[in-house]
């Protein structure tokens, strides 16, 4: 009976809609579930994957190509000394709880992120801010302590979204933002649902309802897509299954770039890895394409420095570390290790590291370098490798966009200490002129490539599997986001 | 009977105390800082300290153990580090999936194993017996996660009778909810049913060979009557033991099956919490599982005494 009723009701709904039969709800699956729903107090990319741009917005926002576009701020003026940014906010913007979004909220959000007791995982984004001043409800002035060429870029991060003091108390369970979708429900361990925000200030979303489902097991992910339990799977975890989806007319496979430079990180302070010749030998011992084919089933672009190939300022330096085992052996002999040496290779859980690690170990063995492989969980990796610096080699994908600046931090886990590079980055941060910045970025990429700080492997690709009719998904992942604001079902 | 029950209760209490110490020690010894895990690689030292303070991670081991056990005795399981919700609430939600799943699987396995075991024992050596033994041998040998994937392939991907996984939620009604638990329950029940059927059969055969059965037959009972009236009850002791052990396994051991079917149950919660170093959740869930296992064993001990009066006297 209830089925009959339901059928009748939906038939009626279809009639009323007057032939607009395209679906307006979507089920999007991903591997990781957010631990909580506050993008401004955790590093977990899963939070941004669900909420960035959909529920929360910042002053600026990332476009699908990684460009920085106006967000809640419709425009801005930068003072001639580069120290004062005046943001003009969009008017008539309200949070999902109905309260108005104005300059006070911007000040609150920025002050909260840079406060002493802030739990913001990217606090450095805000370090340049000296003061935030409310001019009028639609204008806010941000004063910097020194010029910062990245400031607008920094404000586009998920960690810099605008939140309201009225709803901050329960943000972890009940996120209230300004985006085109409103949060409705979270069944922990299973799904999060969003619905269209009817009062959205900008271009309204095309979908009425969005369900995010969390499926961590790669086999289960494959089954869920095949059984059409889910409409979209972003960051599909089993690249070996992609050809099967490509061949199936029910599905489309979208392969794009991420900001993840996957590198063989080297402990630059641990002998004999402190010797640049040894590091160079490692770089030439690695066959990047073999790793991409073997560990990633062909997905990924080889890199020769710590920079995303799709960035306009990228320089192709893969030639500096071309695969050449003979040269590698010669370099090792020159450095005083004709018979090679032994070191550790500590691997975090992702398959690029575990599978890639086995291949790299074999390639290094071929030139005489023996590695002792240890598999670590993330928490152990953070403690031993990242904080403890107790490692020789490790493999990790640095997924933060535009993060070449980490090479200027001598206490960072690579322990690379180069004064010239540090000065260059300091200079870069102050520079706002695009041409000068390009020049400096080229120089920076070249320095770390020629110093062989790390073994640069490949730019991590991302694969999305979706039903054939889903339109408007982002191809690349310039930030960890699943922006659904422009997604719809084509007939 | 009362003395027997009391004795069991004391050993139950001791098990729980020992378990709490062991669990706490093991979980705390595992390397990895929960705050560092949550804040990732760009966090500054001061941010980490601020978060550790918020989470109460800066106390001594003894203080934290006392706080944990004291809280549990008052029914307060603490607050999850990552989710920031009360652990008791989280366990409650997950239990609504894991408990019905375990009961479903247990019911299935018993419903299959009893008739199969009894049938095989009553027709010992026949074609029925050989095929039951053959099939159960296979059931024991097949890993249940592999069988689960196979079922997904057939029933979800090819036939489309079931979803590949996930839980419909009890709000959707009993039938859809039970439907989403059906494939996982079958996957869990298969090896259990096989073991149980084999135990049932051999235990029944042992009992059928005993003197009192011969006496019963001599008094004029048919083979069938002797089996149902006398042998079955006596053969139940080892079967009960296995059922008790199986229930514990079904509660605690469903981690893999819950992952295959992406069910938000207790097992998956433990799995996620371990990798996220959400120590308080791990400790509390494991303690709860220990408590459940100990309670089930206690119930099984009592059930022994009910089916076998000799145990009551001996105690």
UniProtKB/TrEMBL annotation, chain A:
Molecular function per GO: peptide transmembrane transporter activity
Family per record: Belongs to the bacterial solute-binding protein 5 family.
Protein species of origin: Marimonas arenosa
Record keywords, A-Z: Signal
Solute-binding protein family domain location: 68-396
Subcellular location: Periplasm
Entries under InterPro entries matching the protein: Peptide/Ni-bd, SBP_5, SBP_5_dom
Signal peptide (from-to): 1-22
Main location: periplasm
Protein name, per record: ABC transporter substrate-binding protein
PANTHER family named among the record's database cross-references: D,D-DIPEPTIDE-BINDING PERIPLASMIC PROTEIN DDPA-RELATED, PERIPLASMIC BINDING COMPONENT OF ABC TRANSPORTER
Domain of life, per lineage: Bacteria
From TrEMBL, chain B:
MF terms in GO: dipeptide transmembrane transporter activity
Keyword hit for Oxidoreductase: no
Cross-referenced Pfam families: BPD_transp_1, BPD_transp_1_N
Membrane topology: Multi-pass membrane protein
PROSITE patterns: ABC_TM1
SUPFAM superfamilies: MetI-like
Highest rank taxon of the organism: Bacteria
GO annotations of cellular component type: plasma membrane
Cell membrane among keywords: yes
Transmembrane segments: 9-27, 95-120, 132-157, 177-197, 235-257, 285-307
InterPro entries linked: BPD_transp_1_N, MetI-like, MetI-like_sf
Span of domain ABC transmembrane type-1: 95-300
Subcellular localization: Cell membrane
Keywords for this protein: Cell membrane, Membrane, Transmembrane, Transmembrane helix, Transport
Major subcellular site: membrane
UniProt similarity note: Belongs to the binding-protein-dependent transport system permease family.
Record protein name field: ABC transporter permease
Organism: Marimonas arenosa
